[in-house]
Amino acid sequence: MLEGKRVFLRHFVETDAPTLLKWGQDEHYHKLAAFEKIADLSEAQTASSQYAKRLYSYALCLKSSKEVIGLVELYERGMDLQGGLLKTKELGFLLDKNFEHHGYMTEGLALIFDDAFGVKGQTEIWAGTFSSNLKAQKFLENLHFKYMYTADYSQITNLFSYQEKYYLLKREEWLKIKQNTKS
């Protein structure tokens, strides 16, 4: 568990299924975060079980009520030891729309970044957003992520018709930010 002032991150448990079901049935989360569609409680329990098995998948919870208000994940970008991909991760995040604009996700991500860069030895964290998700792009920029490139997935396969913008936060940049906030 990673703990901040107002939030904490813990691994998912089966009792998180109703929250996942709520998000999985809301078009808002499909459109902005590509969150999977979940039809019923049984599917939500399966999803909860899958999240629980992922090493770097966390439920974002309020300390005051223990309520799950979001999710944060770090994904493997590849297993290429020679290319250094084991030292990089990709970020995924979702915040319940009822808890936006309170700084909860910023606090939760700071916990993840401190752990990834300080404890786990990661050198880079990447994040992708749909090109239409300007709110997420601005959020990443506020966290000092730098825009790197846009991938047009419609050029790769006709199964996808979207573009995704990719952002990068390097360990050195995060450590500089942390140092500046302490002074």
Per the principal axes of the C-alpha atoms, what is the gross shape? globular
Runs with pLDDT <50, length 5+? none
Structural category = alpha+beta
Level of helix content? Answer: 25-40%
Q: What is the rounded distance between the termini? A: 27 Å
Count of distinct strands? 8
Mean pLDDT: 89
Oligomer: single chain
| Major sheet summary line | 8 strands, mixed
The succession of helices and strands, N to C, reads: EEHHHEEEHEHEEH
GO molecular function: protein-N-terminal-alanine acetyltransferase activity
Pfam families: Acetyltransf_3
Organism: Candidatus Lactobacillus pullistercoris
Protein name: GNAT family N-acetyltransferase
Question: How would you describe the overall organization of this protein?
Answer:
One of its GO terms (cellular component) is cytoplasm. This is GNAT family N-acetyltransferase. It comes from Candidatus Lactobacillus pullistercoris. The protein is of the alpha+beta class and 183 residues long. Helix content is 36%, strand content 28%. It contains 6 helices and 8 strands. The chain has an 8-stranded mixed sheet with strand order 1-2-3-4-5-6-8-7, sandwiched between helices. The longest helix has 16 residues, at 104-119. The protein is globular. The mean pLDDT is 89.
